[in-house]
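Hmm, how's this folded?
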Amino acid sequence: MTGTLKSVQSAGSGARRTDLDGVRILICAAIILAHALLIFAAEPRYHLKSEQPLVLASVLYEFMRITTLPVFFVLAGWSALTSLRGRGAGRFVRERVTRLLPPLVAGTLLFGPVIKYIELSHGRDMGLHGFRLVDALHIAFLDFLPGSLTKVKLVSWSHLWFLAYLFLISLLLLPLLVRLARRVPVAALPAAPVVYLPAFVMAALLVAFDGYWPFLPNLVTDKSNLGYFTLCFAVGAGLAAWPGFEMRLRIEAPCLLALMLLAFAGVVLCGESAAGRVFVGFTAWGAIGAGLGFAARVRPAASPTLAYLSEATLPVYIVHHVPLLLLGAAVLPLAIPAWIKIALIASGTSVISLAAFHWLIRPWRSVRLLMGMGAPKAAMPVPNPTGAPA
């Protein structure tokens, strides 16, 4: 019991949460793999698709989408409340503006035209109108580029929707965040059944508003999923306000892992239906609880490598989609097994994105600000990014 109380106090303190850093790194790597799988999955709404979908790739992609995105928003909610404790609401909003809007705008202008060109060149079109198949584009990129920056229908934020949603959610929940930030963190452990209640809330929201399917995050036709991610963000803020709840997740981690696996089997069996949405909610909460619980059990030691990779997560996420799609377009025609293609795309994207972070983003103050990073900190030894395990 003494060890548990110390863990609660540590969770509620200002100490660096290396366990959450580890989760961020794993989720970032998983999203890169998920996008590589999506090229070969049955889900049609993507910039680049293989002609022959793979069943296993479809299942694995679905699992990763259900589990990674909610965890990302939960971590964002936790970080937002922790950040707000050390500053006023006005300073918090300014920090949200400087950290989220520059990479959203810069990423849309720099990477959006390339992504849209690849998308249209493969006969696909995604935007405010939804998704549709179109005649493939057959012009050079430099001829396409001027129009892509002046015509609204050709502007694409692609995966950067996450930044827009996160910014909007941060503003919508600001009154709640301020209220929670003023409260003393609750160290009391809840009863075991209490930690399973969020699964029912998440499932109920998805069923009531037909969430999760279809998934095209453009704000206009995706209000149900905006609500779902808002709930995930609020859950993360709640965890930061109630460290005792986090400790109960640590205790219940094996059961939450079993819930995730069993619920995902339900997703596979039921598909796009009310029952399927219930299982999506249960799977997501199982992933959140098990992920945070097991991470707290392991809690990696602070190290330059962990700090480096944790700092890299946001810029790597921002830049990864262009190399991933370029690699995908290059390897799709090759006469090699699909799983080798997926491995090449995912590993190549990771190496290129980390290299871009290391040499093109991290050392330069102006580029750091465009990528949502703060000013450079004191130099520390870092690993060779091409050998990093992310």
